[in-house]
Inverse folding.
């Protein structure tokens, strides 16, 4: 389970950070999922190995522009490059209204099927190998957080039991490991579930939209390996800004993650006030966000950077991924 950050700034881009977009890839297969699609997300994709033609679903947290202005351009480019596969879009009703207005006014032609799913608490969707659920958040417009959990986990053979039952190795082992039942030459029926078990616990991550109350994610975060949440400000800055924007601080999300025993936390969606002073100096103020979070959270903590990737391992731990050798996807129009 791999997560790549395509945009980590809130409200507006900076020279180093684009606005919100996060890609999630399963362990197997080329299909992937995008959470939010801020302006210029398709430009960000050109610097990665992710193919828009393999995009299975786009999950939009809310209608604010820094989370959805990139949708029309990305959809149009998929059309220009010959996409024929359906594309699922999940989000509040306003997202579909926005898209329909842009399609109509700009005479945008989309010939591949667009399937819109209105997000609500009953959402139960499978896409790109993930089961997807949602929970409402606290923001100044309708906003949602999404949980992505592995839908299928590779099976591991119970070799000891196979040997005890005198089942010879060979093609039958392969069938059982694929989850298929098999019949021996002597007529015995072998049920896969009797001779296999999951190789690991299904991995799960929650990707949150804008949210001033991390506790709104309590139920969605049960048993997750990773929470990705906004930390737009530090607590002192948040107090000066006031409650109107309805964002959270590093301290508040860190306290929540600690209280829920979430093993890994990634902070993102940083205010553009944390600007880069020079090419070789980290964003000014970002260290303050990290320091504040570490006061309250003892797990694995990462501050997201554009194009950084992390992997949730089989044991649920988090590791960074070297993307320096990733091969960018070059779109070619027909």
């Amino acid at each position: 389970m791999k997560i790549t950050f395509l945009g980590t700034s809130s409200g507006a881009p900076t020279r180093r950070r684009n606005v919100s977009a996060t890609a999630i890839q399963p362990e197997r297969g080329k299909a992937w999922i995008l959470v939010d699609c801020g302006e210029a997300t398709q430009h960000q994709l050109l610097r990665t190995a992710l193919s828009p033609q393999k995009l299975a679903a786009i999950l939009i947290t809310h209608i604010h522009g820094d989370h959805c202005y990139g949708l029309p351009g990305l959809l149009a480019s998929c059309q220009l490059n010959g996409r024929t596969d359906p594309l699922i879009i999940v989000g509040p009703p306003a997202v579909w209204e926005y898209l329909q207005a842009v399609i109509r006014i700009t005479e945008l032609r989309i010939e591949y099927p667009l399937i819109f799913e209105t997000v609500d608490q009953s959402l139960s969707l499978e896409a790109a190998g993930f089961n997807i659920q949602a929970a409402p958040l606290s923001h100044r417009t309708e906003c949602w957080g999404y949980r992505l959990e592995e839908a299928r986990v590779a099976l591991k053979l119970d070799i000891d039991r196979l040997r005890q039952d005198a089942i010879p190795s060979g093609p039958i082992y392969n069938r059982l490991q694929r989850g298929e039942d098999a019949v021996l030459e002597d007529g015995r029926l072998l049920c896969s579930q009797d001779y296999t078990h999951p190789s690991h616990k299904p991995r799960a991550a929650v990707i949150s939209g804008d949210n001033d109350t991390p506790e709104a994610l309590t139920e969605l975060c049960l048993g997750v390996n990773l929470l990705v949440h906004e930390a737009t400000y530090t607590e002192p800055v948040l107090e000066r800004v006031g409650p109107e924007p309805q964002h959270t601080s590093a301290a508040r999300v860190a306290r929540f993650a600690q209280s829920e025993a979430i093993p890994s936390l990634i902070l993102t969606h940083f205010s553009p006030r944390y600007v880069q002073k020079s090419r070789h100096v980290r964003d000014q103020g970002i260290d303050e966000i990290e320091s504040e979070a570490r006061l309250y959270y003892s797990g694995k903590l990462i501050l997201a950077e554009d194009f950084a990737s992390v992997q949730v391992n089989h044991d649920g731990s988090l590791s960074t991924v070297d993307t320096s050798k990733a091969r960018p996807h070059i779109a070619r129009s027909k």
User: Anything to note?
Assistant: The first strand starts at residue 2 and ends at 7.
